[in-house]
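Before a colleague's protein record goes any further, I have to sign it off. Alongside the sequence sits a line of tokens, each denoting a local backbone shape. I want your independent view on whether this chain really folds as the tokens say. Where you disagree with what is written, explain briefly why. This is what I was given:
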Amino acid sequence: MFLNLKKTLKNIDKLITEAKGVDAEKLEHAYREILRLRAQVRGAISDLEDFGGCRNEQPEVSTVTCSNITDKRVVTIKINEPLPALKELTEAVELHWVKLIHAAIAEESKTGIPKFNKAFVLIEITTPKGTKNTQVWDTSNRAINVIINNLKGIFFEDDNFEHMACGIVADWGGIGETIIRVCELDDLLGCVVFGAKAEKL
């Protein structure tokens, strides 16, 4: 794995040097290599944990809150990393995200975990400007399922249409992060934006 890291770093350095700041194609290639490097580093950490006797402390989750807003309970989980891109979701990266989510749930359990009858899950992704949003955060990204699958059975019974709905939004920002919000779907439909439509239903 260490050899792969060195090789990828060498490729990145070569591409950036050749691009000289003006070759968009080479810079795009360098960006894809950086995504590959992130996945490789996460794989190296996973290998050390599994086979090298090295065990990391609990992964850091910046903020976990459970707030009541006008009697509408909302769980908010903020993670200090953008959702993994399509090509970045290796087995090691997926395991890392499972650990992050469960670390957040463990923190939430200290004050009690709400169980929603029919939940709405909003996943908000912030990514540094310059990445290709339509490619990196496509809604078919399997990483979205990693989040949903690790919330079901805890905040809601299952991920079928009877028990949950979800939305994904992405925006530009200086530092990448992911915010996950979970609330009761009926509370969302009863708010000002959806209220008129909900009444007709």
The first strand starts at residue 63 and ends at 69. The CA atoms of residues 71 and 187 lie 9 Å apart. The two ends are 56 Å apart (CA to CA). DSSP finds seven helices and five strands in the chain.
